[in-house]
Every structure is written in structure tokens, then in C-alpha cells.
Design goal:
single chain, alpha+beta, 2 domains
């Protein structure tokens, strides 16, 4: 094992060992067997964070929490014990201040270690990726309006004979990194943001399926939206990305 990998293993074990910030209080309730997944989990959308330092997750899995907390995709980690993907939990937690989403992610890492016994180490793997960069013109991204919340809303645009003509997506207070996390799940690739734009933005996207691309979340339509509707450059290449190996997990601390 080389020095870089040793350092990565050490850092990640610290993150899972409870060395980071904690929730002031956290309640975890196992869901009944067969509880369905939340409707937007399959596309990676989760609105866990609420004002006032509240964190709420309904019918979530340990795996999905890990992906959210570390900002990784399903192909960026090993499987681990079967129950971390199949068992679902309701989690209600609170901080002692109005924490940001990034602060909440650090607290979820600690919760995963202390309450679910999750242990993992990080490696680096070369993976296919899409890289986002700025084009010749400014992207169609707009400053959020006062009072807006972090949200992605979907609505169907009807066509002839009441068939769906398009899916309209209204996005508020999203960073490009957050948008990349959502799109990456449908593209089976890591998406790297090299635009230099790290703020929160409002924008709109219309996905219009056709005979060649009948699914509104077809990879071709998503790439077209990034390029033509938002105005970003997108190129395909291979890049080194984080890969997490799950070393173990246990339920013994859930009652604490």
C-alpha cells in the first residue's frame, strides 16, 4: 500500500470514527420490512435539511445516507453487508445551530460511524467522467430569490392526445455540484465541475423525449440540457475519483 493510499485510509477512518461534528440529538427508528423507497431516491434527490438545524430522513438506507454524506455515486463504493442496502430507517436529528448542508453531511458521517458502526476506507480509481466547463457565453444561471428553498420540482408538459411532450424541471438554490450529483446517477458517470462557479443558482430545464430517446431522463437529453439550455461545455474523459471500500457495519448501537 503506497503512502497516498495509507493517508486516504487514515483520513476516512477518522471521519467514520466519530471525530467530526455531531448532532445534538438523533432518533433512529427501523422501518417495517417492505417499506418502499422514497419517490425521488432513485434519482438521488433528498431534501434532508430543514431550517432551524433539523435533519429528517424517511425510509432511507445506510447506503443512501453514505452516498449523500460523502457526495458519491452508487458505483463509487463496495457493497458491504446486505442490510445496509435493504433495511430502511426513519431518522430525526437536530443541531444546536442553523447548520448548512455541508455541516449536516459531516454530522451524518459521524452518525453513520457511531450508530450504524459503519467503517470504510477510501481509494482512488480511474473512472469515465463528464467534465463541466464554461463556454463562450455566460451560462443561464440566475441568483436565487429571497425566501426560496433548495428544491427541484418536476412537472409534465402535455402534448397531443394528452401524451407527455416534455418534463419541465424548475430548480432553485442548487449548486452545479448538486445538479451533477443528480444527473450522474442517470449517466452512470462521475460529473466533475470545473466551471469555477460554486454558488447557488436558479435555472430551468425542459427534457423532451422523442422516438429515438423515449425516456425523459435519457443520457442524450440530459447532456443536451447541460449544453444547450444551461450553456455549459461538456467533455468526456477519464479521471481519478474516490472509491470507498466498506469494511463493516453493525446495528448494535442503534438503541443508544
Amino acid at each position: 500500500m503506497n503512502r497516498c493510499l495509507i493517508a486516504a485510509v487514515f483520513i476516512v477512518h477518522l471521519a467514520f470514527a466519530g471525530a467530526g461534528p455531531r448532532f445534538e440529538v438523533a432518533s433512529i427508528t427501523p422501518c417495517a420490512p417492505g417499506t418502499p423507497a422514497p419517490s425521488m431516491e432513485h434519482v438521488g434527490i433528498a431534501n434532508f435539511v430543514s431550517p432551524g438545524g433539523r435533519f429528517t430522513a424517511r425510509a432511507t438506507t445506510v447506503v443512501f445516507l453514505m452516498e449523500w454524506a460523502f457526495g458519491i455515486q452508487p458505483w463509487q463504493h463496495s457493497d458491504g453487508p446486505g442490510w445496509i442496502s435493504s433495511d430502511r430507517f426513519d431518522i430525526a436529528a437536530k443541531t444546536d445551530h442553523d447548520a448548512t448542508e455541508n455541516e449536516m453531511k459531516q454530522m451524518v458521517r459521524t452518525l453513520l460511524a457511531e450508530r450504524f458502526g459503519l467503517r470504510a476506507h477510501r481509494e482512488s480509481k480511474e473512472m469515465p467522467a463528464y467534465v463541466l466547463s464554461l463556454g463562450k457565453n455566460a451560462p443561464k444561471l440566475f441568483p436565487p430569490k429571497e425566501g426560496e428553498t433548495h428544491e427541484m420540482r418536476f412537472s409534465m408538459i402535455p402534448g397531443p392526445n394528452e401524451k407527455m411532450a416534455a418534463v419541465h424541471i424548475d430548480v432553485t438554490r442548487y449548486t452545479l455540484a448538486q445538479l451533477a450529483d443528480v444527473f450522474a446517477r442517470r449517466m452512470d458517470r462521475v460529473i466533475v465541475n470545473q466551471t469555477g462557479m460554486d454558488g447557488e443558482y436558479d435555472f430551468q430545464i425542459d427534457l423532451r423525449p422523442d422516438e429515438n430517446h423515449p425516456s425523459p431522463v435519457d443520457q442524450t437529453l440530459l447532456l443536451e440540457a447541460l449544453r444547450q439550455q444551461i450553456g455549459l461545455e461538456v467533455r468526456s474523459e477519464k479521471t481519478a475519483a474516490d472509491y470507498y471500500v466498506v469494511d463493516g457495519a453493525g446495528k448494535s448501537a442503534l438503541a443508544n
